[in-house]
Design a protein that fits this description.
Elements lengths: L27 E10 L2 E11 L3 E7 L5 H8 L7 E6 L2 E2 L5 H6 L2 E4 L11 H6 L13 H15 L14 H14 L4 E5 L7 H16 L3 E5 L3 H7 L2 E6 L2 E7 L7 H10 L18 E11 L5 E11 L3 E5 L6 H8 L6 E7 L2 E2 L5 H7 E4 L3 H4 L7 H6 L13 H15 L15 H16 L24 E5 L7 H16 L3 E5 L3 H7 L2 E6 L2 E6 L5 H9 L5
Parallel strand pairs: 3-8, 3-9, 6-7, 7-8, 13-18, 13-19, 16-17, 17-18
Antiparallel strand pairs: 1-2, 1-4, 4-5, 9-10, 11-12, 11-14, 14-15, 19-20
The protein binds adenosine-5'-triphosphate.
Length: 548
Amino acid sequence: MTAPPAPGMPAPPVPAMPSPLAHGGAAIELDRVSRSFGAQIAVRAASLHLAPGALHAIIGENGAGKSTLLKLSAGVLAPDAGIVRVDGAALRPATPAEAARRGVGMVHQHFMLVGSFLALENVVLGCEPVLRGGRIDLAGARARAGALMQAAGLEIPLDAITSSLTVGERQKLEILRVLYRGARAILLDEPTAVLSPLEADALYATLRRLVREGHTVAVVTHRLDEVIRFADHVTVMRRGQVVLSRPTIGWSTDAEGELTRAIMGGEPPPRVERPPLPEDAPAALEIAGLTVAGAGGQRLLDGVTLTVRAGEIAGVAGVEGNGQRELVRALAGMEPRAAGRVTAFGVELSSWGIAARRACLGVVHEDRHAEGLLLDASVGDNLVLGDLAALPRGARGRDAEAALIARRIARFGVVPPDPSRLAGELSGGNQQKIVVARALDRVAPAAPGPGEAAPGPGEATRAPRRAAAILAQPTRGVDVGAAAVIHGAIAEAARAGLAVLVISADLGELRRLCHRIFVMRKGRIVATLPPACSDEQIGRAMLGVEAA
Ligand SMILES: Nc1ncnc2c1ncn2[C@@H]1O[C@H](COP(=O)(O)OP(=O)(O)OP(=O)(O)O)[C@@H](O)[C@H]1O
């Protein structure tokens, strides 16, 4: 046993514990790498060096080839031409297993976790430590995972069922999985798209810590403020090519403008502002006492009461998992356990079937894969899903359908503009454009379709008419240009007399677009704030913290 230091004597230095993180970083080099999918060239002769000890940001328009570039770096895809090298040696075979063996791990845009497993089981899945006799050494795995969490600054309840974790926790779990496999290079595809600003800051704190340990970190993102605040090096891709790769120091004072111009190859689009709200605008969407009980009887949505007027854009802010998903599902008629009243221009929706509800509300759910798209169906089919029966009788048929699809593709700039492609083959941002195009163009077409009349506020109707757009995370994963198009369409919907409810983790988006911001916490509306409020005010309401 060591004797305690004598009074007044300095304590002897504590020997530094070796970090449980794998040592050093893996240098990844892409040397004139190309990759096509059929006739589509996703990455074209791209060269890039991802150096250890630095955080690299990869940015660019939707469909520019960023995810493909990351997958090539992690052996998920093999290049058609060119070479991927890890620590100077070619990555052969180009498989995820070989990349992992060489210290490269990837966290995908859509998580790859088994929901019914414990978090710890997901950490060891595929590389389970086995005791003599064949039993899995969960105690050993827990100790190793715990040490890694501490070293990387991650907090994850390892004994929780994975499906009960928040999105932020699942994201951390994916990172822990990669570290557990000894990764020295971590490549993350749009990791912050699903995170609140606070969670995103915490993620970058972890990534910066890994960089300090000498790891290589690369992040694909659409959020330019993150690039400016956290990245050491930025690479811009356009149409499959690397068009710029440079350190982030030395930008002019307008770094965001410079990055936007590099991404778009031209001037950024003008910002969309909220349209004026007429003083006498009538109530269009009224929600009274909307409640959703969970399977265990707990209230996921707890008596939500709010009114959105015709022409108003109302925002909903909140830490993810505080009832936002249930609110959207209940409004869409998808929550059998929902109780309460929802009326559209005075007509109670529960008395109408799902088709009538769909004609009256355009809804975008937060998880486009689970609730928005048929990935194995064509882009065209996805763009008009649920709409064809609602077309006026004289306007049905193949030509009308093709015209509707073409209009939606053009209006929202879906790339490639080919209705026959499978939705699952489009880049994430272009998939997002499809779900937003379908919802918004249904209730607020750019120009009224054949036989359609634009909704005007006020008059009494027998059946519910187009009344509202409910949009959860409408610009998640889309580039600057596409976000401007979507914001423009939201403003048009409001000008056409619809009530618009935007649920978003992007507070800047809410403050710019909305006339009022509701804050949700534990299934309730806990505050209603003006758009001029600060992030701090919204943050305090989100967390239930009283003002000092
Ligand atoms: N599995 C696939 N099959 C067919 N085409 C694909 C496939 N994966 C990607 N592509 C195409 O390759 C191009 C680049 O896609 P990628 O996902 O790399 O873009 P991205 O820059 O990551 O876009 P986003 O920001 O929207 O996620 C797109 O045109 C896309 O449609």
